[in-house]
Amino acid sequence: MSRRLDTINAQPPSTLYMAATLFQKVWDAHTVRTLPSGQTQLFVGLHLVHEVTTPQAFDMMRQHGWKVAFPERTFATVDHIVPTSSQKRPFLDVMAEEMMSALERNCRDAGISLWTPESGNQGIVHVIGPELGLTQPAMTIACGDSHTSTHGALGAIAFGIGTSQVRDVLTSQCLALDPLKVRRVEVNGRLNRGVYAKDVILTIIRRLGVQGGVGFAYEYGGTTLDAMTIDERMTICNMSIEGGARIGYVNPDETTFEFLRGRRFAPAGDAFDRAVAWWRQMSTDAKASYDDRVAFDAAAIEPTVTWGINPGQSVAVSEPIEAAPDDEALAFMGFSNGSKVQGTRIDVAFIGSCTNGRLSDLEDAARIVRGNHVAPHVKALVVPGSQAVSRAAEARGLNEVFIEAGFEWRGAGCSMCLGMNPDKLEGRQISASSSNRNFKGRQGSPTGRTLLMSPAMVAAAAIAGEVVDVREMLEGVPA
Ligand code: SF4
């Protein structure tokens, strides 16, 4: 099964003839018409679906006798509810088994490709899309999950949508959307050792605010982004939504093209060269103007950790917390204004999620873990973002590094990113987590506490038993 999924219009967008951003060009190229409401009806090139937001959408369609318009542009996986300790069917959780069965039935009836744990290609929807080459530059993508912005790392315009919109896309392959403004978020310079893409995006959200991006698409660029791998760009784009932006993207470049070359659903042979020419044409023009611009100095970014209950409440690990003394987040988390997160004893260490569950994330963490042991009071999990990530990590012996150090090596899934499967915090436990949300109750316990940080910082915390500055643990470790 392999086919090309290009969404190239027969008519080039009018924005090709003036200086425009990638967002404007892609929007223009996929516009079907302007609706009476003033919204734009946008064609969706790729629809990614999973078990959580689809059962009701398919039920609604069945009631009306509607069919899936483009099953060949629709791909499914299972991620949120899948247990990571044993993926044997039937799942022990009856509701999880029902959701899995419903997805299997709906995909079979509609002719949609589905990757189950038996397929060898299952994983978190935002990990498998790029991995399989389904995600491509200048494409419009929709998925019933907030972190669909991840796919922007390859220059796609990717929207997280709700259940009724999932129904709309299934039946019409279109979405009704309001246009967005574009903010250029530029990061320049070299990151210091021990500072990762996660620290960059946490710093961006801290400065611009969790509502700062409302109404915007974030175009990330600058020399720091230019030097990043696609994995790192995915970490950045993934959390755009946490800064309020509807989407985030990076213009496609040689790094993007090399990432896609040879992937299963990417164009092949001459078609690949033609696609690259098109992707270049769709990138933001040098003279394009933006609705807003902000800039960050990479060298000033430190390992960053959240102290509060939204991803904007973060601090450099060496700094004290600055907050209003009556901020409810301080009381919930057990911190006080002026205290430090560094030194906080943790109960759980979680390395995984669509933000930081890729091979390079596991490699960064393994570099810290190798030859060390998890603190006795810490439960530590490594959950690869996909079965392909798991295989690649195992081929490099990373599973053995983690297991020897006392981590649990799990099957692919969302796991402890959110409490929809058996991996959950208990009571007031504190988790050092490489995921993207630290909302109250996010990791399964209403009173559980989440400290977001990079996978390397999570690994360091697991070893030390408390939040530490990963830079100290990197001393003497070969780069
Ligand atoms: S890993 Fe977390 S954020 Fe990503 S898709 Fe799964 S639940 Fe959503």
How would you portray this structure in words?
With 479 residues, the protein is an alpha/beta fold. It is built from 17 helices and 19 strands. The strands form five sheets. Strands 5-4-3-6-7 form a five-stranded parallel beta sheet, sandwiched between helices. A hairpin with a 5-residue loop joins β1 (31-34) and β2 (40-43). The mean pLDDT is 95. Iron/sulfur cluster (SF4) binds at residues 79-80, 124, 126, 145, 147, 353-354, 414, 417-418, 435-436.
Spans of 5+ residues with little confidence (pLDDT < 50)?
Answer: none
- Mean pLDDT reading: 95
The ligands bound in this entry are: iron/sulfur cluster
The main pleated sheet reads as:
5 strands, parallel
Shape: globular
The rounded distance between the terminal residues' Cα atoms is: 40 Å
Strand elements, count = 19
Helical/strand content category: alpha/beta
Order of the strands making up the biggest sheet: 5-4-3-6-7
Helix count equals 17
Helical residues, percent: 25-40%
Strand content bin:
15-25%
Please compute the radius of gyration using only Cα atoms.
Answer: 22 Å
Give the SSE layout.
Elements: H1 22-30, E1 31-34, E2 40-43, E3 46-49, H2 55-64, E4 74-77, H3 94-110, E5 113-115, H4 125-131, E6 140-143, E7 157-160, H5 163-172, E8 174-177, E9 181-188, H6 197-208, E10 216-221, H7 223-227, H8 230-238, E11 247-250, H9 254-260, H10 270-282, E12 292-297, E13 304-306, E14 314-316, H11 328-333, E15 348-351, H12 353-356, H13 359-369, E16 379-382, H14 387-395, H15 398-405, E17 408-409, E18 430-433, E19 449-452, H16 455-464, H17 470-474
Parallel strand pairs: 3-4, 3-6, 4-5, 6-7, 9-10, 9-12, 10-11, 15-16, 15-18, 16-17, 18-19
Antiparallel strand pairs: 1-2, 2-8, 13-14
Residues 79-80, 124, 126, 145, 147, 353-354, 414, 417-418, 435-436 line the site of iron/sulfur cluster.
